[in-house]
């Protein structure tokens, strides 16, 4: 039986729930492209089934931040996903802040362990700094999902180096996430 992976490409193409901006780039464009590349990798492996929250670049979910997040969670729960992975880019006031990190609802947990493997996969693939796994029980997509859920911050869109790498090499980030999933599940 295939493992069902729900890939949530963070944010909508336009408001409501548009993402961060930095270095002339938009978070929602990067997360869309990384999600599509990750779905292609997973679909090529018969061990996985995949669903994307944004199957097209113009897919917009909900009419507010709250309903946008609810639509993603409800879709994953209704589909019966085994794992939920939400893809984001980070932002900071200081443009020198860099690296990859991820969040889970609690630790110890399956989600926290999956996140550790995903962060390691991304940092191995990209060379970005490993900022580690953190617990964030307040995040809606981690709190309301019926399966282990990880929110991945690929890199900092406000850091010129991170931003360029995410924009020019979305496939590297997808490969890193994929490797982390395979390491965790053994697909």
Structure overview:
The chain is α/β, with parallel strands linked by helices and 187 residues long. It has six helices and eight strands. It has a six-stranded mixed sheet. Strand 6, helix 3 and strand 7 form a beta-alpha-beta unit. The protein is globular, with a radius of gyration of 15 Å. It starts with a strand and ends with a helix. 47% of the residues are buried. The model has no long low-confidence stretch (mean pLDDT 97).
Rg, rounded, reads: 15 Å
Average pLDDT works out at: 97
Give the termini distance in whole angstroms: 11 Å
For the sheet with most strands, the description reads:
6 strands, mixed
The shape is globular
Q: How many β strands by DSSP? A: 8
User: Which ranges are low-confidence, i.e. pLDDT below 50, for 5 or more consecutive residues?
Assistant: none
Strand order of the largest sheet: 4-1-5-8-6-7
The SS-based structural class is: alpha/beta
Order of helices and strands: EEEHEHEEHEHEHH
The DSSP helix count reads 6
Share in helix: 40-55%
- Per DSSP, what share of the residues sits in E-state strands of 2 or more residues? 15-25%
């Amino acid at each position: 039986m295939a493992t069902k992976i729900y890939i949530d490409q963070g944010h909508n193409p336009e408001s409501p729930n548009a993402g961060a901006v930095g270095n002339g780039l938009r978070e929602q464009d990067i997360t869309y492209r990384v999600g599509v590349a990750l779905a292609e990798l997973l679909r090529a492996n018969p061990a996985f089934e995949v669903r994307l929250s944004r199957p097209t670049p113009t897919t917009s979910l909900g009419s507010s931040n709250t309903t946008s997040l609810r639509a993603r969670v409800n879709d994953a729960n209704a589909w019966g996903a085994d794992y939920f992975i939400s893809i984001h880019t980070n932002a900071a006031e200081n443009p020198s802040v860099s690296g990859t990190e991820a969040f889970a609802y609690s630790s110890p947990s399956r989600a926290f362990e999956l996140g550790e493997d995903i962060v390691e996969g991304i940092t191995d693939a990209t060379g970005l700094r490993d900022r580690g796994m953190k617990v964030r029980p307040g995040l809606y997509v981690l709190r309301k999902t019926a399966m282990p859920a990880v929110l991945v911050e690929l890199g900092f869109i406000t850091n010129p180096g991170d931003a360029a790498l995410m924009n020019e090499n979305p496939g590297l980030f997808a490969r890193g996430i994929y490797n982390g999933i395979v390491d965790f599940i053994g697909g």
